[in-house]
Design goal:
By secondary structure, the chain is α/β, with parallel strands linked by helices. It has seven helices and eleven strands.
Length: about 270
């Protein structure tokens, strides 16, 4: 008797104003996942849609026009309708990635610190870029030591950014120390050769060049840059000057995420 090849199912969550859902779905499909798009209100009506999924991606864009603050309404919608379902999803081994506006929404939701904390007591936030304008450029990310199962520490990843409110800030030095102690600083901005970044390599002025964080389990990752916009060698504006390669570094990001989900699925099956 042969065992069928395991399949990873992914769900890309979108809301009014989301505009990166198609690219995120395409990235996950290229990485080997069977991927569907889903509106947040549909998932809130039927959270069981997550039951056969291993990956949830919260796509970027300008959800609800970012009229209150970037990701604020989207995050509140998730908090009111889906916080318990999302926590169950992560507890059973599901992987979550929030990109740009998706990161802003997840942070508003509180999944990186304490979902029970009121907004005014949160220790971390994403706020206006120091430049006080929208930043759209290519940057370089470095993966740091973290529990995130699909990041390899020390690797560099060229990735575009496109945001006006991407500056990562902390309320106190103790909050930053806590992130460090728990290994939650997952991605930082660096120069192309891996040195600490100043503007414009750090496009928003984030404290300690933080570009992305994970929760203490490593299964929830949020980042401001867009790996789904670097899937082929020709996506990079200077592709003719870069070493020859068969795919963009962003595709490897998603491929490793799918592989991590497969490993988690295999561990669950062996435990059963």
């Amino acid at each position: 008797m042969t065992t069928p090849d395991p399949k990873i199912r992914a769900l890309v969550l979108r809301a009014a104003g989301t505009n990166c859902d198609a690219e995120t779905r395409h990235a996950l499909q290229l990485a080997g996942a069977e991927t569907d798009l889903c509106r947040v209100n549909k998932l809130a009506q039927d959270p069981r849609l997550l039951d056969d999924c291993s990956i949830l991606a919260v796509a970027g864009g300008f959800s609800y026009g970012d009229y209150v603050a970037a990701g604020r309404i989207f995050g509140m919608e998730l908090r009111l309708g889906l916080i318990d379902a999302l926590q169950r999803f992560v507890d059973r081994g599901g992987l979550v990635v929030g990109i740009c506006n998706g990161f802003q929404a997840l942070l508003e939701l509180g999944l990186f610190d304490d979902p029970g904390l009121p907004q005014e007591e949160r220790q971390i936030a994403l706020t206006d870029n120091v430049s006080n304008h929208y930043e759209c450029r290519w940057v370089t990310l470095r993966s740091e030591e973290s529990p995130c199962p699909w990041l390899v520490p020390g690797e560099l990843m060229p990735t575009p950014v496109a945001h006006g409110e991407g500056r990562f800030v902390v309320r106190t030095p103790e909050a930053l120390a806590d992130l460090r102690a728990k290994g939650q600083i997952a991605l930082t901005y660096v120069t192309e050769d891996g040195r600490p970044a100043d503007y414009p390599d750090n496009p928003n002025g984030s404290v300690e060049n933080i570009a992305g964080i994970c929760d203490p389990t490593g299964r929830i990752l949020g980042l401001m840059p867009h790996p789904e916009r670097n899937l082929t060698p020709w996506n990079h504006p200077r592709w003719t000057r870069r070493p020859e390669r068969s795919e963009g570094e962003g595709l490897l990001f998603y491929r490793r995420m799918v592989e991590a989900a497969l490993r988690g699925q295999a561990m669950t099956l062996s435990a059963d």
